[in-house]
Amino acid sequence: MRKYAAGRTARSAAVFVLMLLLFPYIVSVFVNGAGADEKPFHVRVRTEGGGDETVAEMAWPEYLAGILALEMPEGCEPETAKALAVLIRTRLYRDAGSEENGSVNERFLTEEELAKRRGVEEAREIFETYVQAVDATDDTVLMYQDSYAWTPYFQSGSGKTRDAGEVLGTDAYPYLAVRECPADAEEAETQEFSFSCGEIQELCRDFLVAEESGETAEEGYSATDFEILTRDSAEYVHEMRIGNTVCTGDQFRDALSLPSAAFAITADPDDSRSVRITTTGKGHGLGMSIRTAERMAEEGKTYEEILGYFFEGTELRKDMPENEIFCY
């Protein structure tokens, strides 16, 4: 009987010691969840500085949060951040096959760089929101017909998103269609720019055709040589004329570094060889409007609902881990 009691005491002591050893892990799992101590996946990031390219490994959540910080340095609603995290992750996955050695080179901000813009405390709060958005949407991407969807986004627009078929002349992206953006319309962001016709001629020289008129060729363009021909369904300039050249609104926007292809051109009343250009919005107008996404998030919409609105017809997949895309 004494032997039995002694054996039982020894076993109890062993169990007690084992529980003491496991106690920190049990508490960690209870508080943080299983796998909390697992190290995050590290991705190879290519950066350029001083004319040299370097490749360094960076924690995947921190990298995605850094891209979010670059896109939205002033912060945003958590559900907007989650929607953007999915769009950015999908883009990186989509581009992974074309990148050398599976590395990535999307620009980003570190928390320290963000602190220089927003201050230490605000930067810490913003960055934490973005890390949480990345974690909350872990392994989540948008798919279309078993391929990664094209997931563009922009800051604000004319009041509607653009139809990819109209802009690009292809039916490859039927989910990028015209969507009403009430926040963009109500809080229209307009800017006015002034250019001399000579400046525009120089900036657009890569796609301008030779002028048949000897006078125009010799003296250059005047305000009457600029004409908007057509607009798309979202009121962005589709085609315009510069002298004898017909170009797209996006070509013109890129050449002049305008914030948007939703613009109007008027003659400068004080100078017949200058024009004034008024733009509406900021960005290309395709995909998700961040401003309207913010409004939707403020109204209680989830990131799934936001993405479903702007990318109708795509599938939200939540089982696409990054370590199966970037294999080192």
Compact summary:
With 328 residues, the chain is α+β, with helices and mostly antiparallel strands.
Low-confidence stretches: 1-6, 25-29
* Number of spatially distinct domains: 3
Strand content: 15-25%
Share of residues in helices: 40-55%
| N- to C-terminal distance | 61 Å
Treating each run of at least 4 consecutive H or I residues as one helix, how many helices? 12
- Average per-residue pLDDT, rounded, comes to 88
Describe the structure.
This protein is α+β, with helices and mostly antiparallel strands and 328 residues long. It has three domains: 1-38; 42-183 and 285-324, no CATH class; 190-280, no CATH class. It contains twelve helices and 13 strands. The strands form five sheets. Strands 4-3-13 form a three-stranded antiparallel beta sheet. A hairpin with a 2-residue loop joins strand 10 and strand 11. Helix 4 crosses helix 5. The longest helix has 31 residues, at 2-32. The chain is globular and about 70 Å long. The chain starts with a helix and ends in an 11-residue tail after the last strand. Residues 1-6 and 25-29 have low confidence and may be disordered.
